[in-house]
């Protein structure tokens, strides 16, 4: 075979494998994860502040959610409300991006050549499979020391 024949057959093999992949789903998942995290991070910060507020005099006392938010705003401003947002944005963006990427690829694979829609249980199984795939990629890639890799 010539080099051109090999590349043509190689590219057709790759196109067969990846024909169910839509990168738009990855982008949508990343965008959704990032935006939801940015919108809700101040509430996550409040939750953490309440969890570590164990009665010690060193830590500030909060009367409620609004009091906590206004106290953080007065002391540290917008920067204070978004302390620690970077790792959360990376984690949420990548994990939701991978999830939607795998979910839509799996659904597309299962519906190929079918005239009817998937059953409800098939959607649930697809979601579970996508969760397992995204969990595996995320944890094995980013946390290899936990799994002894």
UniProtKB/TrEMBL annotation:
Record-level GO cellular component terms: membrane
Coiled coil feature spans: none
Predominant localisation class: membrane
Intervals holding Solcar repeats: 20-109
InterPro entries recorded: MCP_dom_sf, MCP_transmembrane, SLC25A32-like
UniProt-listed GO biological process terms: nucleotide transport; transmembrane transport
Localization of this protein: Membrane
Bilayer disposition of the protein: Multi-pass membrane protein
Record's keyword terms, sorted: Membrane, Repeat, Transmembrane, Transmembrane helix, Transport
Family according to the record: Belongs to the mitochondrial carrier (TC 2.A.29) family.
Protein name as catalogued: Solute carrier family 25 member 32
Organism of this sequence: Equus asinus
């Amino acid at each position: 075979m010539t080099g051109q024949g090999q590349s043509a057959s190689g590219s057709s093999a790759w196109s067969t494998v990846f024909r169910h992949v839509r990168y738009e789903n990855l982008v949508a998942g990343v965008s959704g994860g990032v935006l939801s995290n940015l919108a809700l991070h101040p509430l996550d910060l409040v939750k953490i502040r309440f969890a570590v507020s164990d009665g010690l005099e060193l830590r500030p006392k909060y009367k409620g959610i609004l009091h906590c938010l206004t106290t953080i705003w007065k002391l540290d401003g917008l920067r204070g409300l978004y302390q620690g947002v970077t790792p959360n944005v990376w984690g949420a963006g990548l994990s939701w991006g991978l999830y939607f990427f795998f979910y839509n690829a799996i659904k597309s694979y299962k519906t190929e050549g079918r005239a009817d829609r998937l059953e409800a249980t098939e959607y649930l199984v697809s979601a579970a499979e996508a969760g397992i795939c995204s969990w595996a990629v995320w944890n094995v890639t980013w946390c290899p020391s936990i799994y002894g890799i």
